[in-house]
Model the fold of this input.
Amino acid sequence: MTARELVDALMRRWYVVTVALLIAVVGSYILQRGQGVYTTETVVSFLLPNQKALSPNNGLKDANLIAFAGLVARKVNNGQTPAIYSVYDAPLYGAGVRQGVAVSIPNGGNQFATSYQRAEVVLQIVGPSERWVARVQSKLLSQVVQITNAQQASVASETARIHASPESSTKKISRVAPSRTLAISASIALLIAALLVGGWAAVIVDRTRRRLKITANEGPER
Done:
């Protein structure tokens, strides 16, 4: 097909290209409205009895407390181990998650070798709204505290128990969204794709219609 034939086909079947462009515009609008997620990475520290997070002997690097933190994390996960990425602090939304939760303990290693060095449970939460993330955050924090206390029910005195201490500075919920430049680039790419697909479809429709018209003009053989 020559360039002239292509242009003629597009002119005759302009409505096909128009439909493709309209679909692209609507899709771009929907994507723009749905962009961005809310996320938080809340840290719960497990401390020795009567210790504060800033205390020099708080127990954060104690092997027994690290193991205890791992036990609590598994119970919050209903016995399941969360997915491990090549980089521990890779954000959950970076893996394509738009609504979900990951409960883990800090891993200084990678997906091939683990290295747990701090008695902490990290609650990664990603959701479509700040309210949803806040609700899940509150629920998980309550579960961590309840499980921590339940695992030490045999300890008579509360002052002798390991205690879970959420770090206030990590409870903040943030919104993550692509920059305006990326959003515009995505819209342009979508429109270009619509032009290509619409042009291809217009040529197919034009050829089909012309073939049917020729067949109809020839009529049945005698």
Summary: The chain has a mean pLDDT of 82. Strands lie at 37-47, 100-104, 120-127, 163-166, 174-176. DSSP finds five helices and five strands in the chain. The domain at 37-176 is CATH 3.30.70 (Alpha-Beta Plaits).
